[in-house]
Specification:
By secondary structure, the protein is mainly α. The protein is built from four helices and no strands. It has two domains: 56 residues; 32 residues. The chain is elongated and about 70 Å long. The N and C termini lie far apart (74 Å).
């Protein structure tokens, strides 16, 4: 046997994962219609992350892959979390400006500058 062979996974596992993903999609739609205040984004990201992990583990066969493949996937998730963190940190520190840009202003004098 080759080093790259994977165990045979029963079809019922795939159908169970598919059912969980469908339920996750329904939960996503239902929570999108709710007003959770500041929790809208964290709940949506948590549901999406859970579904992504299921897809990666079972449909991409990472659960039965080598340690190198698992390390690459974990490193990719870590990099994604760092990028989201830096993006939200940048967005959170921006100064809110309520001025209308001159290009879109109704005042013709501002458009001439």
């Amino acid at each position: 046997m080759s080093e790259h062979t994977h165990p045979t996974i029963p079809k019922w596992i795939y159908f169970a994962v598919l059912a969980v993903l469908i339920v996750g999609t329904i939960v996503t739609v239902l929570t999108a219609r709710m007003d959770l205040g500041v929790w809208n984004t964290p709940v949506a990201l948590a549901i999406a992350s859970f579904k992504a992990v299921l897809i990666i583990l079972y449909f991409m066969h990472i659960r039965f892959s080598s340690w190198l493949a698992r390390t690459i996937v974990i490193g990719s998730f870590f990099f994604l979390i760092v990028m989201f963190g830096l993006t939200f940190a940048d967005y959170g520190t921006r100064v809110k400006v309520n001025e209308t840009p001159a290009l879109y202003s109704a005042d013709p004098m501002l458009k001439q500058r």
